[in-house]
Amino acid sequence: MSAQLPGPVMVASGCGGTGRELEAFAGAAGIAGLHLVTRSITLDARPGGAAPRVAEVPGGLVNAVGLPNPGLEHFLATELPWLVRAGVQVTVSIAGATLGEYADLARRLSRAPGVVGLEVNVGAPDDAGTGLFEVREPYHSASVVAAVRREFPSDRPLLAKLRPDVSRIVEGARACHEAGASAVVIGNSVPAAFPDGRAGGLSGPAIAPIALRCVAAVRAALPDVPTVGSGGVRDLASARAYLDAGALAVQVGTALLHDPTTVARLRADLAEETP
Amino acid sequence: MPEAAVGGAVHGSGHPVHVDGEVVATKRIGGYQHLTLTAPGVPEGFRAGNFVAVSVAGHVARRALWIHRVRASSAFGPTLDVVVERRGDGSGWLAAQPVGTRIAITGPLGRPFALPKEAVSCLLVGEGYAAAPLFPLAERLRERGCAVSLVVSAPDESRLLSALEARRSARSVTVLTADGSVGLRGRVGDHVGDLLARSEADVVYAAGPHEVLRAAASAAERVGAWSQVAVETWTPCGTGLCHGCPLPVVGEDGVARVVRACTEGPVVRGDRVRWDDL
Ligand SMILES: Cc1cc2nc3c(=O)[nH]c(=O)nc-3n(C[C@H](O)[C@H](O)[C@H](O)COP(=O)(O)O)c2cc1C
């Protein structure tokens, strides 16, 4: 059973605010039809980490935002309805400390009107430090995917977002696919440090070649596993690189922080390109 | 009275735009560089307290700049002015750009100062380049019949924004420098209590470093006046997308929260900021 994947351009998790802020920058096409992956939503509200949460480095950003979000209930009551009314195609990113939390989130979101799909954040650059279920081995991510899949209908997309580590990505993608993921998102911010040594994740143009290498490796080893590229997408050429490597879609994160119209432009550019 | 500016609607200024702007004038005044920019749609939507996010060549993060003044018409059409202090490579780049440089500009961004409904008396306290948004605020307040007392402070004369033009909108202007090079000697914290008492203001507006905001907010609280503070933090995107500019506040329900300085702020009620956590 295969689910229709969102795409070909999505807003990456944590880089689209609450979604609503993008309305002003949606261009002529408007915000309806925009594919948004929400910032990672947890069961309980999280205030997020201390400042500075983001630092600028050559070629990108280092971030340790700490998953600030209002918690599932508040999200369902106040953020989701606006997005659904506006016609945004919402994939909810979920993050939990335990498999039980993941299952709970999936069960409640499966009943929420308007949710297109789920994305499990199983490749956060500092998962343990952020208080999330720690993913060291492929079976860790697979167990999250399985726990979520049990609660979320198999005809709806479930994306597993993996760390772009070329030495582990093929095993990770295989395990998640077998556990029921509709597609794997490759990848996330790359584990890195702030100038003062604090743990964070590197994002932006600097990581595009790393994620691209991982997409190529997964496509070569597992041609049947649908992939989504994420890392440094900022224009048609950088999106094309992933799509040409076999990714079915791309996610745009950091580039939106630099230019909030990036996704609107990229959607238009890709639409123009395909005859 | 001004409404609480914590939580709630997105983008207090209605509809921000992302446009290709241009430097049409650049002038060094004292320690700061004053840039005049075109940015179609930004001056039109401006309210005092808004800022713009600008792109800097070779950098991913944006640079946030207070809007100091807008002109509805000029030889270049509508323009806006910003004041740049050279602090790092981003501001250094901006300050060095000649007339004709094209710059991507997003704005107007953030919640502006809320204006009182009645013609009350107001004390405006600003320090350094960050005092910039108080000048257009003074004009708006005067238009509403408010009596405006303006306090412009700086470490020294070179970092004092000129209050010359503000004398038209303000009933009184007080200049403070930490080194006493011009005006009263001292910091905002040393004088704000007296200045507030003398102005008999019902509302205090402050813009500047955190200690200035805190001093102004506490002085207001002591006499039961309202305060609004324009909190400057490092805002990586400026548009509310990244959650990278945490501002610790107490909500209207009394619950401690962290909001985005760029979107739920930068102007918030002074009595709602958790200063110790900032
Ligand atoms: C400020 C910021 C916040 C992020 N928050 C999340 C998050 O909540 N959940 C998640 O799965 N990924 C998060 N990410 C990772 C992005 O979604 C994206 O996968 C990564 O940054 C690589 O893509 P990019 O180079 O286009 O940014 C975040 C990234 C940034 C820069």
TrEMBL record, chain A:
Pathway: Pyrimidine metabolism; UMP biosynthesis via de novo pathway. Keywords: Flavoprotein, FMN, Oxidoreductase, Pyrimidine biosynthesis. Its cofactor is FMN. Coiled coil: none annotated. Residues 3-272 form the Dihydroorotate dehydrogenase catalytic domain. This is Dihydroorotate dehydrogenase. It comes from Nocardioides hwasunensis.
From TrEMBL, chain B:
Belongs to the PyrK family. Its cofactor is [2Fe-2S] cluster. Transmembrane segments: none annotated. InterPro entries: Cyt_c3_hydrogenase_gsu, Dihydroorotate_DH_ele_sf, Dihydroorotate_DH_Fe-S-bd, FAD-bd_FR_type, FNR_nucleotide-bd, PyrK_electron_transfer, Riboflavin_synthase-like_b-brl. Keywords: 2Fe-2S, Electron transport, FAD, Flavoprotein, Iron, Iron-sulfur, Metal-binding, Transport. PANTHER family: DIHYDROOROTATE DEHYDROGENASE B (NAD(+)), ELECTRON TRANSFER SUBUNIT (PTHR43513), DIHYDROOROTATE DEHYDROGENASE B (NAD(+)), ELECTRON TRANSFER SUBUNIT-RELATED (PTHR43513:SF3). Residues 16-115 form the FAD-binding FR-type domain. It comes from Nocardioides hwasunensis. This is Dihydroorotate dehydrogenase electron transfer subunit. Signal peptide: none annotated. It comes from the Bacteria.
